[in-house]
Amino acid sequence: MIRPRALHITLTPSTTTSNRGCAAIAEARSVLEHELETIRTGGTWKGERVITSKQGPHINVDGSRGDILNFCANNYLGLSSHPQVVEAGIEALKKYGAGLSSVRFICGTQDIHKDLEQKLAQFHEREDCILYASCFDANAGLFEVLLGPDDAVLSDELNHASIIDGIRLCRAKRFRYKHMDLNDLETQLKESQSSRLRLVVTDGVFSMDGDMAPLKGICDLAEQYGAMVFIDECHATGFMGPRGRGTDELLGVMDRVHIVNSTLGKALGGAAGGYTVGPKPLIDLLRQRSRPYLFSNSLPPPVVGCATRAVELLLTSNEIAQSVGDKTMRFRNKMTDAGFTISGSDHPICPVMLGDARLASLMADDMLKLGVYVIGFSYPVVPKGKARIRVQISAAHTDQDIDRAVDAFIQTGRKHGVVS
Ligand code: PLP
What global pTM score does this model have? Predict the structure, then answer.
């Protein structure tokens, strides 16, 4: 047997440095492991199921046998796998390549980017549009450009995390009003009266409850107190309102909401990307100063191709925008008749309220055993005691899909004593 030669290490300055590096990463590992354990023991660990097919109402999930009914994607209009949307992505990939290897202002703007921006501005009936890699970026990049220390931002307390982060980055005075509470908003508008610009900021639809911001009241107050209005329409663009323009269309305030941020990653094809539409000088200034736009790669051509076709489909016909409404009402009515409590109103986000976090998680697991993929949400994503299973309806679900989901809910609901 050949014995390995003993290794004699002399501590040169560089090995000392590398030992210190090892110690630092070992310490970081232990800090991280501790943090991970806290999440596990706190019961808030987020696992990820692996899908082995394309996105749609019927999917394959690693570890589950056969066809699984999917009720937890934001694929509201079923456009993620729409043949025309997929084909447009392939065409763009062939003609324009995989990506730009550049940000927009260096050499990353193609005619398809300009075309999509123009179509989105037209769709929302706003002056101009700027694309981002995501709506998270659009929210991160807007507020610090628009608002300075002399200005004020008034934000609903339950706004999306990306809005909260975007507001943190800006130097305006911050006012947080109680969720959808117009009286509280008015109080804060009075308090912020001395600011130069004021911006009321709200999700159009809040994704945990499927509830809609009271936009008419918000616009009335904003006009009374001289403030602008911003909405995040990620859970509304494409299917809320008669032509799918969003909650501002549904509530008759399209011309009273000044700035809209939304995503291409949900109803509009589901790939990725976000955007801001609003007054031209704002969009011009965002192109000059908005950091996620300036310092991040252009949207890849296939993504632009898919989104453009999705918008074109919606611009040509109102039928697609309305295709999810009946399905939503079928689910909501059947579940309510069966004794479940469904929160929100008329929105394809249908939270099945259960209260207890463990119950929500167990029921979601049992639903998967019955071939229906839904997700339980509990604290800290939703308030304590308000755990739920969030069901999301897609226009691509058939009536039979919806009935199968309701039957599975009744079966698991009976097993866990939620309904009789
Ligand atoms: N705003 C809201 C209300 C959202 O729900 C989301 C996504 O979950 C975002 C912004 C971020 O969108 P994107 O996925 O395009 O970054």
Answer: 0.93
Cα maximum dimension of the chain:
90
The amino acid at residue 368 is L
Pocket of ligand 1 (CB under 6 A): 134-136, 139, 160, 162, 203, 207, 232, 234-235, 263, 265, 274
Same domain, 293 and 204: yes
Q: What are phi and psi of 130, to 5 degrees?
A: -130, 135
Pair 117, 263 in one domain: yes
What is the residue range of 227's domain? 83-316
Domain count, the chain: 2
Are residues 171 and 279 located together in one domain of the fold? yes
Question: Ligand 1 pocket test: which of 46, 131, 135 has the largest number of ligand atoms within 8 Å of its C-beta?
Answer: 135
376 shares a domain with 303: no
139 alpha carbon to ligand 1 midpoint, in Å? 9
Average pLDDT over residues 320-340: 97
Residue percentage of the chain with pLDDT more than 90: 89
Whose CA is closest to 171, among 151, 193, 200, 199? Answer: 151
- Residue 390 has a pLDDT of 97
Domain membership of residue 8 (yes or no) is: no
Ligand 1 atom closest to Cα of residue 207: 5
